[in-house]
Amino acid sequence: MKDRFANRKYFIMALVLLAAVVLIARLFYIQIVDKTYRVSAANNALRPVTQYPARGLIYDRNGKLIVYNQAAYDLLVIPVQTSAFDTTRFNEVLGITMDDFKSRMKAAVSYSRRAPSVFMKMISSETYAVLQEELYRFPGFYVQARTLRKYTRPVAAHLMGYVGEVDNKLIAKDRYYRSGDYIGVSGIEKSYEEHLRGRKGVNIFLVDVHNNIKGSYAEGRYDTVAIPGTNLWSTIDLTLQEYGERLMQNKTGSIVAIEPSTGEILTLVSSPTYDPSLLVGRVRSENFTALQADTVKPLFDRALMASYPPGSTFKIMNGLIGLQENVIKPTSLFSCSNGYHAGSLTVGCHSHASPLNLPQAVAQSCNAWFCNAFRNILENPASGSIQDSFDKWRAYLVAFGFGNKMGIDLPNELSGNIPTRSYYDRYYGKDRWKALTVISLAIGQGEIGATPLQMANMAAVIANRGSFYIPHVVKKIGDNGTPSPLYTQKYITGISPENFLPVIEGMEGAVNGGPGSTARGARLDSIIICGKTGTAQNPHGKDHSIFVAFAPKDDPKIAIAVYVENAGFGSTFAAPIASLMIEKYLTDDIKRKYLEDHVLNMVIKPSGKEQ
Amino acid sequence: MEKSNNILARLDWVTVILWLAMMIMGWLNIYAAVYNEQHTSIFDMSQRYGKQLIFIIAAIILAVMVMVTDNKLWFFFAWFIYGFFILLLILVLVIGKEINGARAWFGVGAFSIQPSEFAKFATGLALASYLNSKRQLLGIREMIAATAIIIAPVLLIAVQPDMGSVVTYFAFFVVLYREGMSIWVFITAILAVALFLLTLILGNLPVAIGLLVVAAIALLVTSGYLLTLKAAAVMAVTGGMAFLIGNYILDLDTVLIIVLAVFLAGVVYAWFIYRLRMVNQAIIYAFLLGGLLYLFTVDYAFHEVLKPHQQTRINIMLGMEDDPFGEGYNLNQSLISIGSGGFAGKGYLNGTQTKFKFVPEQSTDFIFCTVGEEWGFIGSTVVTGLFVWLLLRLMMMAERQRTTFVRAYGYGVFGLFLVHFFVNIGMTIGVMPVIGIPLPFFSYGGSSLWGFTMLLFIFLRLDAGRTEYLG
Ligand SMILES: [Zn+2]
Fold first, then answer.
1. Ligand 1 center to residue A325 CA distance, Å?
2. Using the beta-carbon criterion (under 8 Å), do A114 and B356 form an inter-chain contact?
3. Are A370 and A443 within 8 A, CB to CB?
4. What CATH number labels A46-94+104-207+221-234?
5. Which CATH class is domain A238-287+298-600?
């Protein structure tokens, strides 16, 4: 067969030779012509020194500094560059024993003889000052500057989070990190890591045998400048945060306060908490182990990660949904004879005047009223079936942020739980369940779970009469920055503003109304607080006390949810704490010293499973 | 017995010796790259050099196994082998192990196997088999079919995603070129790459204007100044229209306005071109409009399809971005390593740069750093020379075949080695972007070593039987 294209082999051959010429010419240039790559004297060595940028600072919403940096130093060694030196003096400066010295040296050698490794982490500024003077006597050793976190106040530990060393798994995944680098592990430190960390730089130095830096390699051509991290302005009010943590001392639970008009979180307290400076520097791993072993779980962020049944606070939701679905009216009257009775089923209630309308039922937290309302919602003749009504009911809750992660800019948020239609179908058989089967949802009990964050957001929605911004904790990325665009988008819940009015009237009555109102302990003379108490059933011990509120009634500035575990009724414990928080935030002054003292002196021992 | 003697006699021993030499040199350099005083024995199985020795022994066994096969097997089962590896490439996307963000490996105990390394010889066989049936009559239909054979594994590998391996499959166009692909395809491809690079370096507006100027010059040369003036007049009118439409109605950017103007001018020209049979002018116009549309696509593809780190790598290579502690970091460290080697190198195991663990992937994709630093310009040239020798040898062998099948397969092997050799060494010294592909027989890793060995020895086996007729 004739090969018509045999001549093409010459072109292909030329291609090979061209490739070889290009490579060899380039090799000739970088290896022989260009002298910058060469280390001039044979004795000189190159030393890469990573320049760690300062991590971004974190301010509170008013520009008060919360988190900043302090200098720390790592002592590094390149074993092959060491030679005989006065180890006694060396150990004296560092405050270590000869055995200690030997084991550290051995670890360094086993990592690599020629690559630098950390000999001693985070030596103090004082030790550094002494060491720096005498470093010329210890060839092969050098110091690399690092920064450690420092806190202006011992508060907001869960919120700020902490910084730790990267693990090998992450190093394999993300090319930016090298062994020994720091990274945000929790809280804002984690969720804003990419902004806070800045960018590392590297200086490559020429070093002579006497451990003296002779200058930059290749006039710094291969050096890179470290770029400092971006500062963050948090939405937190540091004063209010600190006050909240004080009020929650000796109690278990959480406080979440939101500015309703922006979704900015003013306070995020989880109690018990810990001093954030415990998790900084050399003491971190030791303290971390201790905190982790603590039975009261101080590391656990209850505000985002604890899901409780919302109890009576949830009646607000059923009231709103009923109004929107047109199955109840603000004037609807339902009677209550110490509870709701339907056949063999009874949902008990406390004794109060009867019958009540919607605002009264909210104010006095009547179980029977809301069982009737909930039944009307599910048995709505306008929908095809109980199950279709249930889907609609659930959709409203999802629009409020229940049953899903809200998308706060903090890691590890829990989604809570709103049962689905298919959940009940699985449990009772397809469509074989009725309103009465799930009646406990009317009063916020049963399979339902919500985080304190979700409850605070509910209070914010009511304060806004129907809309909200996703709660967030950072309002400015950079000193003149903006929040992430996720948090400037307004969400509408689908409940018309006018339907909020009777519910708000009821919440106002609960705090400020006459006899039978459930939260009079939260009342303030100067400001109208609207609130609702709740009690979360706790199968492991005494019930949890809940209070959600916002204030002032018109043009609200703060929406809040308070949880106190094992404290019983919402009115006794959660309501006064919420009231004090509101007073502190809106007036910056506490007039009710007796109430403050009372709260501060309350000690509620956790009664967990161990009881 | 007589037959196997025959094979040994006909086996191309020069290639076998080159292959052995490269594997041993690679092994010694891997030892230098991960050298550690705690594990000084080169046979230490816990270290990469110990494992590489096992890989090399296995590769030799694999080579012997290929040599004892019947050479007809590769011809008759070419499509079956191809189908089998396509299936494996699909399977790896489903049950593969994810390493460094790519689902490209099958986990087998402690080892991982990368099917894309083996799919190379399978694709080479299938392509050769197809070309063998066409006898160098490559029209548009055959080009499309041949391209489809190459593209199928490429798409599957792109999904993993392993862009490095994708690039290597372009090697098969060498085969198509040798077997009669239209030279225009080649020229168009080179123009396309040139336009791509120019667009990224200069931005699309200067290139668009450049295209207009080139078209005008081409028109002037082929058709004289009168026609050029007429065309320019038409362009001025449609340009004005396009400007009005683009600026006030559709809100287009400048390049799209130019595209629109050229398109509108085309509508006007079309009648003349058709009536007067102006073939040259039609070609010039087609190139202009095609070029402009392509330009627009490049811009879009670069920003929307490539991942940020891939964009960065291309930008660094083009000298547009300086990011030494990010994607450019490897390249800088690699340049320092190789450059500091000087003429004679620092001597075996005496490299300082490579011992800093500065360059990640030192024993795999950046193994040439160790060569450059410890053996200097002499060593670098020797390694480059060995590859050139191997490549020319492969070409010579391909050219002595009687069948299109073996020749086409041989050129596939040749092309793959050429791309790996040039791109890998090129990236360590900054003449190519940093694309993570191994240096054949040098880089650490079983899959690539075995894949390249299979690739090479199937060709050696076919070459040894070149006097026999394949069916
Ligand atoms: Zn009642």
1. 23
2. yes
3. yes
4. 3.90.1310.10
5. alpha beta
